[in-house]
Every structure is written in C-alpha cells, then in structure tokens.
Specification:
Blueprint lengths: L2 E6 L2 H12 L4 E2 L8 E2 L4 E6 L4 H7 L4 E5 H7 L4 E5 L5 E8 L11 E6 L2 H10 L3 E6 L14 E6 L3 H5 L2 E10 L1 E5 L1 H5 L1 H21 L1 E9 L3 H7 L7 E4 L5 E9 L3 H10 L3 E7 L5
Parallel strand pairs: 1-4, 1-5, 8-9, 8-10
Antiparallel strand pairs: 2-3, 5-12, 6-12, 7-10, 7-11, 13-15, 13-16, 14-15
InterPro entries: ATP_PRibTrfase_cat, ATP_PRibTrfase_HisG, HisG_C, N-reg_PII-like_a/b, N-reg_PII/ATP_PRibTrfase_C
Enzyme class: transferase
Catalytic activity: 1-(5-phospho-beta-D-ribosyl)-ATP + diphosphate = 5-phospho-alpha-D-ribose 1-diphosphate + ATP
C-alpha cells in the first residue's frame, strides 16, 4: 500500500519539506525532479502547482496534499481538511487604481482581472457589481487601468499592490496552507491509520515549535517562588539534586515568554538556566 502525497512546488515546498523532515519523512531529489524519493516507503511523492492539488486529491489521483484554502474554495474541491497549517497566510483582495472611487464602479459595467474566477464572481455578485471577468495568468496587478478596472488577487504584505499604484478596497477571502485528504482514502482503514499517525506527529511538531524547555537549579528556599513563575504545560518537573538541598526544575513554556521570564527567574534565585529546543510535544 502506498499513500500518494501531493506537495506544492515553489516557496511553500520549503515549509512542507521542513515539516515532513521534522516528523521523520525525508524528501530527496533534485530541484527539477517532480517525483522525488521518500525516506518512508509508505509514501509516494509528487510535486505539483498548488492550484492543481485540491482537484486532484478530490479525484483520488492523490490521497493527501497541501495547498492554500483559497484554491480549495476556488475549485469547490470536496476534500477533508485534516489540519490547518497556517503557512503562507494571504488575503484575496479587490483592488482599483489608487485615485479611483470604489462606489462609482458600481454604477457602470467594469472589467475585473483575476486568477480566482469563482471566488471573484461570488464577491462581485454579492456586492452589486456588473462585471466582466477575465482570467489572468500571473502579474494580475499590472492590468489596471488600461486593461481592467479592478483586480482580485492575493497578497501577504500589500507591497506589490502599492508599487503598482493600486489600493485595497475590500477583502474577498482569507487563506493559509491546509493539510487535506481524499475522502475515500480516509474511508480505507489502512490508509487512515497512516494518515492519523502522520497527523499526530504534525501536531507534535507544531506544538513544539511554539515552546522551549527551560531547565534550572535553585535552593530550597527559592523553589516556591520559581515554580509560581513558570507557565508550564501542566506542572513543572521538580527533582532534588543528589546529595544536596537544592532542586532542579524543568518546564516547557511558550517560546515568546522567555524574554521576560528568564530575568524574573534569575531574580527569584534560579541558577544554571538552560533554554533548550523541543522537537515534538505529543
């Protein structure tokens, strides 16, 4: 039995490769190889454009895949979302030339350039526009004002939009990377067991990325103050040091808390403080 996995080719591939590597699945191959080898023989990998993956997973050409929620919605792909990953967050936005009036466009027929034909049509209908859609094939932002009155495109920072003297007038959709599966694959007990194991490890890695392990020593008179400071997942681990009245304290804490927490721990009497990475939290 093979689990067929579709991975988006391009910048998102780097994040997916790193995630898979952290759970123990190593992708091996050259940049031009669209069918790379996999360290786990249960998986068969293919690299595809992210736009193509939702429909192919729905059809059963692949069992699992990764792509933006925008492309799942745009294609109306009937897939099972297993885990929102949060990579590459973007907004699908409606943009017009920066010195144009947005409401005035509702008074006449307009041309709208977009890669998102279905999401755009729904947005335009819901907002009272009389519009002719034309499909763009990249570089959507260059269409106005000569070739389109509006563009509906994705953006993460808005920099390209501003550089082309456009302004954002409305948000059409919000998207980030999803891990999803073919519904028939999930109905297969053998495939579902592998996918469930994969999800368990993905959750473990993503939880671990938000935390670090703090280890420290302290004298017995300071132990209560130090434990009270630690925002541990449950309770900190406390152990008495061999042949001593001192203690060792260990806690997994949110990574962002360390900047403020470590000085407070030091002031409370903690010594030999170590901050260590965590690979998985299961």
């Amino acid at each position: 039995m093979k689990i067929k996995m579709a991975i988006p080719k391009g910048k998102l591939q780097i994040e997916i490769d790193r995630l898979l590597s952290d759970i123990g699945i190593k992708i091996m191959g050259s940049e031009r190889n669209y069918r790379p080898n996999c360290s786990d023989e249960r998986f068969e990998i293919k690299l595809l454009k992210g736009q193509n993956i939702p429909s192919l997973v729905e059809l059963g050409q692949h069992d699992i895949g990764f792509a933006g929620l925008d492309w799942i919605a745009e294609q109306g792909a009937d897939v099972e979302i297993i885990k929102p990953l949060g990579y590459n967050p973007v907004q699908i936005v409606a943009c017009i030339p920066e010195d144009w009036d947005y409401e005035a466009l509702k008074q006449r027929k307009i041309i709208v350039a977009t890669e998102y034909m279905n999401l755009a049509q729904k947005f335009l209908d819901d907002n009272g526009f009389d519009a002719q859609l034309i499909r763009s094939y990249g570089a959507t932002e260059v269409f106005p004002p000569e070739d389109a009155d509006m563009v509906i495109d994705n953006t993460s920072t808005g920099t390209t939009i501003k550089a082309n003297r456009l302004k954002i007038c409305d948000v059409v959709y919000e998207s980030a990377t999803q891990f999803f599966a073919n519904k028939a694959a999930l109905a297969d007990p053998a495939k579902k067991a592998v996918i469930d194991d994969m999800l368990l490890l993905i959750n473990g890695v993503m939880n671990a990325r938000q935390r670090v392990l703090l280890e420290m020593n302290c004298q017995s008179e300071n132990i209560e103050k130090i434990v009270a400071l630690l925002p541990a997942m449950r309770s900190p681990t406390v152990a008495q040091l061999f042949n001593s009245q001192a203690y060792s304290v260990r806690a997994a804490i949110p990574k962002m808390a360390t900047k403020d927490l470590i000085p407070k721990l030091k002031q409370a009497g903690a010594t030999d403080i170590l901050e260590l990475p965590i690979r998985k939290v299961v």
